[in-house]
Amino acid sequence: MATIGILHSRPSVDSLKSIRSTATDRSTIHRRLQKALPTRDKDVWANNEGTKPKALPAKYADLKKSLVKPEDYDAVQASWDRLLVSLEKRVKEIKSAGPVAVPVVDFNEIQETNCQFPEEIADTIRAAGCCVVRGVVPRAQALEWKASLLSYVDRHPDVPQLPNNSEPQIYCTFWQKAQIEARSHPAVIRTQLAMSQIYTASEDTEVDLMNQALYADRWRVRRPGSVGMFQPHLDNGSIERWEDKEYGRVFRKIWQGKWEEYDAWDMDHRAEAVMDLYGGPGACSAFRSLQGWLSIDDNGPQCGTIQLLPDIKLSMAYILLRPFFNDQNKLDMDSTYFYGADPGQGHVLKDTWHPHLHLNKSIVSCPEAAPGDYVLWHCDLVHKVEEQHKGFNDSSVIYIPVVPLCEYNIGNLVDQRKAFLKGVPPPDMPSATRSDKFERDHEDRGRPEDILTLEGRRLMGLEPFEASEVGITNGQKAIREIANEALEF
């Protein structure tokens, strides 16, 4: 889910790039990320009206030429032709499978010895880019958390609600006791680590897939008959996938005409990519390697649930190559259409702009997710929510993403900890939720004593990371030391 809001007092692209190597400087940047709730939905998302998107400035033609070199033109054209054939076949398979195309695994499959899924299961998740993990938290516990959240809102009518207070779906609390318990629950963290380890990182890459950093988000109760708020979109940046040099290195195989060799789960360059060059409303000040929500009621198809495009490699190869091809499927290095990836706005997709994705066929509803099940999807996966809730029960979830410990996330963790201890919204959230009377003055909000585990305290910045642990990589050791220094341990 994209963050709803627009930024003010944002630093320049050059200044953001020049200081991203220092965690404490990153924290300074995050303090300047003050968002205000937009007045219209199109302030959040790129404009998707018209048969063609708006053309971006001429510099984006130069950007295209920097990504695809002349010596690779023939290879890229041939790769596009192969991609369209593969997509046609895969779309048919997804449509035929429906929700079954989204892998479902059991929490008990996570191995005790290394906190990983068996390789066969991991491979299935890698291919789809998403999964439902069954039975992470007992049903009774999940339902108890939902009751606690609703009771809190009843006691505190000042809690902001989106899209409005008369027909709310998103509730803007961040530090309610149930949220603190859910984020720090040992099984939730264990699931996050198993999913995080589907990614790979080189020995010296400064990222820790075995530790998390807090990113406090909200929770949803979508009632029967409600209309969906989100169109097909991507999180974790928009034009940044092409424009930020480090982010672009993630996709270099695609722009060399070798999309088959692209690894969506390679962390080496993602860990240092900048995903918010323009202070966009759909952007986020943390790198969430996987988006996710914990079900706190019975969710499922036709009941207002999330919808996913369960093929991460083909979908991303298509989206990343689309600006390089015209409507006749011929290489076009001069146009500046980026098809929904406008600077400073959420990245949207549309059937007429992305015809070979067949979004009405390839995006399928998530399978049933009972209270206590955990739904997770790759940061590059196309997703939306069902347009209508046709069921009978609330579709209720707590948003809990996977946020690996890396440089990009350390400054954010410093600020998240401050926000938690003060009881104020985290710096990434809309200023419309920043009432002086909100949460900070609620005596019954969550406190450090509500954190269930040592790992939970660590991910919230309240305990140091173990930099001397035996068997960790050079990159893990380095990033834990950087985090401890930034957190002043």
UniProtKB/TrEMBL annotation:
Biased composition (Basic and acidic residues): 434-449
Ranges where the record places region Disordered: 424-449
Origin superkingdom: Eukaryota
InterPro entries named in the record: Gig2-like, IPNS-like_sf
Pfam name, any one: Gig2-like
Coiled coil: none
Official protein name in the record: DUF1479-domain-containing protein
Source species: Lentinula aciculospora
